[in-house]
Amino acid sequence: RASTKPISQVTCTAPVNIAVIKYWGKRDEQLVLPINPSLSVTLSQDQLCTRTTVAASVDFKRDRIWLNGQEQSIDTPRLQKCLGEIRRLARKRKHEEERSGDLLGCCVHICSENNFPTAAGLASSAAGYACLVQSLARLFGIDGDVSHIARQGSGSACRSMYGGFVEWTMGRAEDGSDSVAKQVAPAEHWPELRVLVVVVNAGKKAVGSTEGMQTTVRTSALVAYRAEHVVPSRQDDMKRAVLDRDFQAFGEITMRDSNQFHATCLDTYPPIFYLNETSKQIIHLVHRYNRHHGKVKAAYTFDAGPNAVLYLLQDDVPEVLALLKHFFPANANNDSERTFVRGLPDV
Ligand code: 2P0
């Protein structure tokens, strides 16, 4: 039956972010509060991103969600948390915004698509929850920062709420209200910076981040040491490197932080291995390349999967791409270790 009642609808896109100071471990599982601050670079809107449409109508009987065309359960704790928090804020502001009041009684339909492999360690949950929370906030007419809500969908999602260079503060408040994302500098601050995403394996990762970091926090002494004694000063050094556009410092800290994150995975019991042989070959290649030039010209970082992300400056992109293509020729016949290179012209 065709409805005559109006549907309110909002579409947003949110890009992936790639951390240069890694988040790994929570001090509060429910509120998603991290054991250390982190810092990332948000890619540009037209690259790896999620597109989400949310619609509200009095004709909708229940909340529903589709991911990449497949309907999924809406009854997951994190989705419910985000929906609940948005509706709570909307109710609070109802007297200010007539439209949000109208929609409050409506159910929502959510349709979300990624233009890149989901759950392959390419920050799909970050872009996904950032996009979901942003779209719902617009639908319900909520202004201001809602990164604390995105954080409760997926920790790293709060950083995708802003462009450019973004920090996620640890915060001190018990309710998590000050554990939020803040822009350190916009993307235009460092226009020569480039990102290459080297997809080593587009399959689903073996150990999910949420579960992996729980085991790490429970079993690794190294991760506690890292959070207390390494990351706080490293975060400051990284912010300075970004503000000074100091690629030497930026690149070295990025590689050291990726390496230490993967060291905490190895220190987890039983150990977690996200890097594979191709990842390690890329690490060696980058160090050989940098040694050859006598300075840091490219920096790798790896998240919860074997795919490499390389940070470099614009002028060096052709040379590094040529090197990658030479040492890792595309081989479409080998599904498990399909190696291809994707260049991202803009950060
Ligand atoms: C990061 N990662 O800072 C780190 C580096 C993976 C390695 O944030 O449990 O998907 O949803 O808060 O945000 C992945 O963790 O985990 C992640 P939850 P999330 O980008």
Strand order in the sheet with the most strands: 1-6-9-7-8
What name does CATH use for the topology of the largest domain?
Ribosomal Protein S5, domain 2
Query: Could you give the count of β-strands?
Result: 15
Mean pLDDT: 90
Identify the bound ligands: ligand 2P0
Explain this structure.
- It is a single chain.
- The protein is 37% helix and 23% strand.
- The protein has 347 residues and is α+β, with helices and mostly antiparallel strands.
- It has two domains: 8-188, 2-Layer Sandwich (Ribosomal Protein S5, domain 2); 193-344, GHMP kinase, C-terminal domain (Alpha-Beta Plaits), CATH 3.30.70.
- A five-stranded mixed sheet has the order 1-6-9-7-8. Strands 2-5-10-11 form a four-stranded antiparallel sheet. A four-stranded antiparallel sheet has the order 13-14-12-15.
- Helix 1 packs antiparallel against helix 4 (147-153), helix 3 (124-139) packs across helix 4 (147-153) and helix 6 (221-243) runs antiparallel to helix 7 (247-267).
- The radius of gyration is 21 Å and the shape is globular.
- Mean pLDDT is 90; it is low at 332-347.
- Bound molecules: ligand 2P0.
- Ligand 2P0 binds at residues 19, 22-24, 32, 38, 125-126, 154-156, 209-210, 261, 303-304.
